[in-house]
Each structure stands twice: as C-alpha cells, then as structure tokens.
Amino acid sequence: MDGQHDDHRVDANGRSQEEREGPLPKRPRPLLASLSAAEIAEEFSHHDPQVARVNNGSFGCCPASVVSAQIRWQRLFLRQPDEFYFRHLHPSIDRSRALVRQLINAPHLDDVSLVDNATTAAAIVFQNVAWSFMEGVFDRGDAVVMLHYAYGAVKRSIKAYVGRAGGHVVEVALPFPLSSPDEVVAEFRRALELCRADGRRVRLAVIDHVTSMPSVVIPVKELTRICREEGVDQVFVDGAHSIGNVEVDMQDIGADFYASNLHKWLFCPPSVAFLHTRHSSAAGRRLHHPVVSHEYGNGLPLESGWIGNRDYTPQLVVPTALEFAERFEGGLEGIRRRNHERVVEMGRMLAAAWGTQLGCPPEMSCSMIMVGLPSGLGIASEKDAMGLRALLREEFKVEVPIYYNKQSPDEDGEDKIGAAAVTGYARISHQVYNVAEDYYRLRDAINKLVRDGFNCTLLPSKEQR
C-alpha cells in the first residue's frame, strides 16, 4: 500500500486517520515580505546582548514568536488539564508529526514518532538491540559498529544497553582534519572488513549524519548502501544536528532508524526530536519507549505521546516554528543555504586571521565548521579545551565550543605536538540571528591571547575560578 492510501487507513472502529487525528496540515506558505534585520533582532532579543553566541549547534535557538506560542499551549493546559489532554494533546502532536513527515519525505505517518531528544531516540533503538541479544535473536559477540566521533552520550548508551547485553562494540577510527568523504568511506569499509575477519556479524551500524565534535557532514546515504551490501542487519542514523541544517530525506537515505532534534536547527524550544522507523523494518515494530506508560503496546508514536504528566508543548509548536522559517526567503532551504555560505565565509576569515585552516572542505560542512586555533595557545588536553572555552565565555563574552585534536603518536610513541601543530579547533555555527561582529569578537579575542603570550598552562584551576 503506498503512502497516499496509507494516510486514509481505518482503525478497528471504522474511523479514518483524518477522523482520528484531524486533517493533516498543509505546509505554511511563505509570506510576501521576509523578516528584516530589525525583526530578526526582535525575535531573538531574549538572547544576552553582551555575548557573541556562535554556538547554535550546542543548544539551538527559539524565536520569541515560537516561545509565545509555547506559553499559550502551557496556559491552555494549566487552565483545564483534562480538556487539554482529552481534546487537544494527541491531535496536536499528530499535526506536528505530519509536518515532520513532509519535511523528511517519509512515506508513512505511523513511522514518525516525537520524543524528547536524539539521545532518547537512540536509547529506544539500543534497548531493542539489547533485547535481541538477551533473547538469543543475536549471538553474544555479534557487533555494533559506530563512528569514533559519535556523540559521547550515544557512545555511552551503546555500551550501557548493547555492551551489557553481550554485544561487541566496534569504533570506526576517523582521521581529522579531513580532506574528502572518501576517507570516511574507506575507514568504514575497513571496520566492516575487520568484523568479518573476526567472524563477527554486524547487527547494527550507528552512523552520524553530522558529527558533533569535530563537526563533519558524513556521507550517510553511501554508508547505508555499503551496510546493505555487507549484510548489516540494521542502520541507525543519528541526525541530531540534521533537520534544518542539511537535507534530510528518509526515502533517499534508506536507514532503518533516523533521529534528529527539532530544537537544534528548526527553531523549536527544548526539547523535541523525531524518530523515524522504516516501514519495512521488522525491528521497527518491536520498538518501545523506555518509559512504560498506559499506551504501551499501542505503537511507538502513541507511547511517546504520553509518558506521564509533563510538558509536551515543545512537540506542539512545530507548526509555529515552520511558519517562522517560511518568513525567510526560500524558507527552510534558503536558511540552510545562507547559513552554510556564511559560516564558510566566517570560517575562512578566522583561519586567515589565525594562520590556520578549516577542519574539512566546505562541502563537508553545514551550518557549523571547524576552524584551527593558533598552535601557540598550547591546547594539549580536553581539560585545556574546556578551560579555554570558559575563558572566552567569562573574559571575552564569546560562547564557542573548543575541540582538542589529539595528535597521532610518532615512532617512539610520543604525541607529535610540534610548534606548528594545530591541536585545537573552534566549532563555529551560523544561525539567522548571527552577525559578522560575533565572529570578529572571537577573532580579536584569540588574537589578543596570542599577542599577550597566553597559553593553556596559564589557565586557572577550577578552585581559582
């Protein structure tokens, strides 16, 4: 049954989907006039005006019009909770799901669930894999493959769920800086070959669409295709940074599971994400939310739509967030394109000012890009990276994540940290509220530290701060 007919299936009581959930919303049409610079500033006037905020990738952003819509939903709940639950909650969640379905080109609405965040979505998938190990569907020692640059919480979740259940966890080593997607493909193939050589069947591949730190766009479509060729049972794409940032097309990518936050780059308040399950995936029908509620067994969309009394309003303002995006020329696609162009421009400006380079080619970046920091800063550990980030925040009012790029050891086993080695990178983001002065402030702060002879050995301890 194709997606068009699937939308009108009837339930056991003979009700169509439209009768159960209300009519599917149409995509908002763009307004005739785009937002002016002054209107954009007003939408984000709740941001601290003293801070150059070039870290949208960390927590996302939410414009004032969407915040106002969220408050209206919260007040509706507080006014009469029973009416809100029985009349408004589920139809409104389903309208948001329908819009997400359109955005990601998913053929079936029943395959789209809204959850708290991508980490929750990952736990749902890994829980199911763990059950397969515990129930003997998978053999102990079968493998789960993930990228070395997978998000820290996701890596721990894999080990917590899958490792404890008997799965063997394999990390795909990735070089950095990167010069081509071919490097990612080659390392991924090598990891699958090693699993085959060890006699391990790969049950799940976890692939980031956009890695967090360092930030790189991964060729997920090609890696998914390789997994199919190599007999990998299931593919989970962690697209935490993806929707609103890069193109996301479920039918084109073809993964069994795909998750992305809506509060990172889609202007929703924290926190809300979607989890898509490929309709033909048998594993998808076994998924359950880790929080067991009254809806257990009624399908993941319903299970996720009620996990006890909590604030569901981030899931309800998706239509308003998309209306905001459509106020820009070209809508969401136009925002993505301009953010990418601008972050590359600002990244090149910073690299030229610091005498360094970008961490990957522009085509492997999105609305975030890695920029090498001057070697004289002496970033020699994760602790140094966090200390420098705190210094930039507290002394210069610049918020930007810093990545420690550990050097490969030389023949004697010592880390190669020479005078010219780039051991630290700044991950800069660009979103509609950013202006050039934000990046000039970061440039000038780093240049001042270098001129003053600062290096990370001078960072104060936590006690001193």
From TrEMBL:
The residues forming the signal peptide are none
| Biased composition, class Basic and acidic residues, residue ranges | 1-24
InterPro entries reported for this sequence: Aminotrans_V_dom (IPR000192), PyrdxlP-dep_Trfase (IPR015424), PyrdxlP-dep_Trfase_major (IPR015421)
Superkingdom of this entry's organism? Eukaryota
The UniProt entry, under Pfam families, shows:
Aminotran_5 (PF00266)
Q: Residue limits of the Aminotransferase class V domain? A: 93-279
Q: Known Gene3D superfamilies for this protein?
A: Type I PLP-dependent aspartate aminotransferase-like (Major domain) (3.40.640.10)
Q: Quick one: where's region Disordered?
A: 1-29
Alphabetical UniProt keywords: Pyridoxal phosphate
What is the name of the protein in this document?
Aminotransferase class V domain-containing protein
